[in-house]
Amino acid sequence: MNTIKILLADEDKKFRSALKTILLDRSFQVIESETGSDTITKINTDNPDIVLLELKLPEINGIEILNQTRSSLEGKTVIIITAHGSVRSAMQASRLGIYDFIEKPIKPEQVFSIIEHLLHTKKLEDENIRLKTALINEYKLIGRSSAMQSIHTFVQKATASDANVLITGNNGTGKDHLAQYIHLNSQRNQYPFVNVNCAAIPTHLMESELFGFDKGAFTGAFKTTIGKFEQANNGTILLNEIAELSTEMQAKLLHVLESKTIERLGSDEAVQINVRIIAATNVKLDIAIRKELFRQDLFYRLNVFQINLPDLRDRPEDIIPLFEYFMERICERQGLITKTVMPDALSMLYSYNWPGNIRQLKNVATNLAIMVNRPHITGEDIQRIIEQEIRPNQIGRPLIDHSLYKARDNFECNYILRHLEENNWHVRRTAEILKVDRSYLYALMQKHNIIRVKNKKK
After folding, report:
1. Which terminal residue of the chain, N or C, has fewer Cβ atoms less than 10 Å from its own Cβ?
2. Domains of the chain: residue spans and CATH
3. pTM above 0.85?
4. What's the average pLDDT block by block, 10 residues per block, for the chain (458 residues)?
5. Close Cβ partners of 336 (under 8 Å, ≥ 6 residues apart)
6. Bridge partners of residue 110, in order along the sequence
7. Percentages helix, strand, coil for the chain, rounded to the nearest 5?
8. Which of 294, 200, 280 is nearest to 238 (CA)?
């Protein structure tokens, strides 16, 4: 049943009666008033959601009613209905925050149509607020360690500013997550957030991906296409794994930062852009600069705010809160029973080294939330999942299935692992040695669940 309460304030009983019949038939609550003083009383006491207000009521006119009930009408909707409308009255009412202004003669069905449109618009606005709130909850910062508390304090300054941000940290430490958090809590949160994985885009396609291209710019360019920077206009662009950009592309990015313009491929026209840049990398850029792999001037442009995310093993106080948060969110989304984490499981979570950082912790939580049907998680459950995660990454793993497909799959995994180890897990160098595109190598690593497993601290 519809619980929307509507106040009909009009001295025309016939009009009120006809409109009331229509609204009651559609399950709205309806209250009536025919004088100014009665209208004020009912606004203050009955708390209507919508007020249909005749501008020329006996005793007190509509403008004065709006002035006297301003606090009671906060967050409510007022629609002015009058047979005596004037530009001056309409302007006065508009300044007092009315939703619409319509003149008689008007059919009751027309008023109902306006109310329906109003409720539909409000429903969309409420849904937008709900989704935005859910997104903010999804990307909130979890952590009670001193490291995370310091980061949280620093991040608040970054969100209040519009300056560029550089996020550093090893794989899986939450760089993407933090970038989303900064955007959602910034003044740009009504505009797009565009995430660009620089490591996954082939070098020869990078310029067209970032800046777009005009029709006919190259073979296959059948229509003008905007790039990631234009997609992010007025919002935020995350340049993830920025150290993977070629030095040529770094120079072009520097020009974009300095001029605040981009040029699509095949065009000489400069397009003005207003984008905040967040860059993220797991590479030590000071070393990359010394090796002339990364431009120092670009680094200075990006490094207005630098936030370094520590490995999970360096902030063990955050392991349990993060795990419980992931479990709760996953169970809520999937409609699963809430699970209690037993003391032996908590102990194992706390003592494990987490080489895959937060990403690995989330994967474990997801697996357990879905696969464990009982209402509690034990230490054995944790150990089983962790062993399953680590085993595929061991070089020289035994063949369980003797099919040709599995044998080829095992060889490919072990071959990639061996070359990654020999090149100290430098993906770009490994891709060059294997003579494959870097993005393809990343895809193969994901296919075989290849992550860098470091020795556990003693």
Report:
1. C
2. 5-131 (3.40.50.2300), 146-310 (3.40.50.300), 313-390 (1.10.8.60), 394-447 (1.10.10)
3. no
4. 81 88 87 92 91 87 86 85 60 64 76 82 77 69 89 91 94 93 92 93 91 85 90 96 94 95 90 96 93 94 94 92 91 88 90 89 91 90 79 43 57 81 84 85 81 50
5. 330, 369, 370
6. none
7. 50, 15, 35
8. 280
